[in-house]
Design goal:
Elements: E1 2-8, E2 12-20, E3 25-35, H1 50-69, E4 74-79, H2 81-84, H3 89-100, E5 104-106, H4 109-123, E6 131-136, E7 141-146, E8 151-157, H5 161-168, H6 176-189, H7 191-200, E9 204-208, H8 211-223, E10 234-237, H9 239-251, H10 254-257, H11 271-285, E11 290-293, H12 297-306, E12 309-310
Parallel strand pairs: 1-4, 3-12, 4-5, 6-9, 9-11
Antiparallel strand pairs: 1-2, 2-3, 6-7, 7-8, 10-11
Length: 311
């Protein structure tokens, strides 16, 4: 059976087409992403503006072409923060169905976090030790405290990179006072995370795809180490190398970031916010061990909805 998973994120619509194998694993046939930026201009106002709304519909029309090309038999499409929090999110879902015949399920933050966990667990070797999984989206950021068997705590916060970028509108490059203001805001908003951390005491950070993928690629280009490839799903990161890349990003202008090797165009505007979020978590929680998972929600859907595993 050929199936597809579409993750309708705030910044990016991600498509994965795969085939179920006889041994209950899956084989990837095709994947792509389109930077729709659904939250552009209105994410903190609670609706999707006309232009990004249309970009989203057009992206799904493009994906419909791929579904037909690969003769997809079953499609799972899930909408997250931008659509679930928008007053016209249901309108988007209805128009998507009308124009593409793709049925979209809007999931809440709790289910999103659970699917992210299962995607990460498929990619990263977890054991009985508790890790903190962090998934930075455009509209929300999910934190999950878990080991290889159990989710002990999970929460979705309205602290996505697009949402925070629009709220703070930092200078180019960002200033020290703006970073301090940003960190103070996170301390206010993440008090429930700190409470959970005190209870469960994670030993490492697992970064879930997205901006973390770019961190791997930038470190790879900067230090001539490994970059993302199809053969690996887990990448350990040396803290010193992360700090070097983080400082480089924070000191750079938007124009300079466009020249950074390993940083794709769709992330040059929001990567500053992403590294500020990562910096804050590493510093506040004193975590030294970082791993990156190239899997996230899409693969969690494959695990939970189809019961398939990685070959």
């Amino acid at each position: 059976m050929v199936f597809a998973v579409i993750d309708l994120g705030t910044n990016t619509f991600n498509l994965l087409i795969a085939e179920k194998q006889a041994d209950n694993t899956f084989k990837k046939l095709f994947k792509t992403k389109i930077p729709v930026k659904l939250g552009e201009g209105s994410i903190n106002l609670g609706f999707i503006s006309a232009i990004p709304f249309q970009r989203g519909i057009e992206a799904l029309q493009t994906y419909k072409g791929y579904l037909n090309k690969y003769k997809v038999q079953q499609t799972f499409a899930f909408a997250t923060s931008a659509i679930r929090s928008a007053s016209n999110g249901r309108d988007f879902v209805e128009q998507a169905r009308e124009h593409t015949a793709i049925d979209i399920t809007i999931i809440d933050g709790s289910e999103e976090a659970e699917l992210i966990y299962h995607g990460n667990k498929m990619a990263v070797k977890m054991d009985e030790k508790i890790s903190l999984i962090m998934d930075i989206g455009g509209g929300s950021t999910e934190f999950i405290l878990a080991n290889n068997n159990t989710i002990f705590w999970k929460e979705s916060y309205l602290l996505g990179a697009a949402r925070l970028l629009e709220k703070f509108r930092p200078s180019d490059p960002i200033t020290s006072s703006e970073i301090n203001e940003f960190n103070d805001y996170l301390r206010q908003k993440l008090h429930t995370l700190f409470e959970a951390i005190r209870s469960f005491k994670p030993e490492s950070l697992i970064g879930s795809s997205g901006a973390f993928d770019s961190i791997v690629d930038m470190i790879g280009e900067e230090f001539n180490t490994i970059t993302l490839n199809e053969l690996l799903t887990e990448y350990p990161i040396e803290l010193s190398k992360y700090i070097y890349v983080s400082n480089k990003i924070k000191k750079s202008t938007l124009k300079e970031r466009r020249e950074i090797k390993g940083l794709i165009d769709m992330r040059v505007d929001m990567i500053v916010i992403s590294v500020l979020l990562i910096d804050f978590i590493l510093t506040e929680l004193k975590l030294k061990n970082i791993r990156v998972s190239t899997f996230s929600l899409k693969e969690g859907v494959i695990s939970q909805k189809l019961g398939l595993s990685l070959s």
